[in-house]
Write a structure and sequence with these properties.
By secondary structure, the protein is α/β, with parallel strands linked by helices. About 40% of the residues lie in helices and about 25% in strands. Bound molecules: adenosine-5'-diphosphate (ADP) and magnesium ion. Magnesium ion (MG) binds next to helix 1.
């Protein structure tokens, strides 16, 4: 489903992704963990071409793109293969929940309005938000907004959903409802790459965990074995720090 080869990206003198190789199978859920600044967001953004990679090859579904030579049509095609869910939801503030979902369908996909509304309502139903269809984002909680953002990402039928720390801006009591929706999608065999700090969730939902540090994939493997039995010293230290934080809070 996804094959990334030797993907590299630098910002000025800062090499942020160093020849990343990554394969994700259809229906697989991959969690990416790692310290702040390790390149996790940049990796996701490069897959969607929100950031322009310097070199490497990205294949998603049937579309392959050589990052050094591509045209506008290839760029559009690759973008259509994935949809992103951001930490801060990024909903249109002047559109209702339903309009946030129908907009990319009507404008991007030229779907007729009635059909887009039907699909929008069905998607809101799936994320438990159909009763809020006509409300504006500002009147909704963070968890509710994020569920709408997930519905919007699903609307365009992407081959893969990319989540960049989807729960880290939420109040603790709102985290669960978003993770619940993501768990449901995982059960429906939707291919997902999730950058997250929710280790318990990652362990339970992800098929595989990738630990990134300093722009490289340091370690990857089955979720349970990476979290319970990390081999690399950097992974061990990262996971230990997370647990130490919890001890400290208690
Ligand atoms: P993570 O998501 O793992 O915290 P990021 O991918 O956001 O890491 O960032 C990796 C590195 O790239 C950081 O050093 C960050 O400062 C740098 N970086 C990210 N985006 C930009 C940008 N638009 N311009 C310059 N540097 C950036
Ligand atoms: Mg990030």
């Amino acid at each position: 489903m996804i094959k990334v080869s030797e993907l590299s990206k630098r910002f000025a003198n800062n090499p942020v992704l160093k020849a990343i190789n990554l394969n994700v199978k259809q229906g697989e859920v991959v969690a990416i963990i790692g310290p702040s600044g390790s390149g996790k967001s940049t990796l996701l953004r490069c897959l969607n071409l929100l950031e322009k990679p310097d070199s490497g090859i990205i294949q998603i579904g049937e579309v392959t793109l050589d990052c050094q030579h591509y045209n506008h049509r290839q760029e559009t095609e690759l973008r259509k293969q994935s949809a992103m869910v951001f930490q801060h939801y990024n909903l249109f503030k002047n559109k209702t929940a339903l309009e946030n979902i129908t907009y990319p369908l009507i404008v991007g996909q030229k779907m007729d309005k009635k059909q887009a509304m039907q699909r929008g309502l069905w998607l809101l139903e799936r994320v438990g938000m159909v009763d809020y269809a006509n409300q504006y984002p500002i009147t909704l909680s963070g968890g509710q907004q994020q569920r709408i953002a997930i519905a919007r990402a699903l609307a365009v039928r992407p081959k893969v959903l990319l989540f960049d720390e989807p729960t880290s801006a939420l109040d603790p009591e709102r985290v669960h409802e978003v993770l619940q929706v993501m768990l449901q999608l995982a059960k429906e065999n939707i291919t997902m790459i999730i950058v997250t700090h929710e280790m318990e969730f990652a362990k339970y939902v992800a098929d595989r965990i990738i630990f990134m540090a300093n722009g490289i994939i340091v370690e990857e493997g089955l979720a349970k074995s990476i979290i319970d039995n990390p081999q690399n010293a950097l992974t061990q230290r990262f996971l230990r720090q997370l647990t130490d934080d919890i001890d400290f809070q208690i």
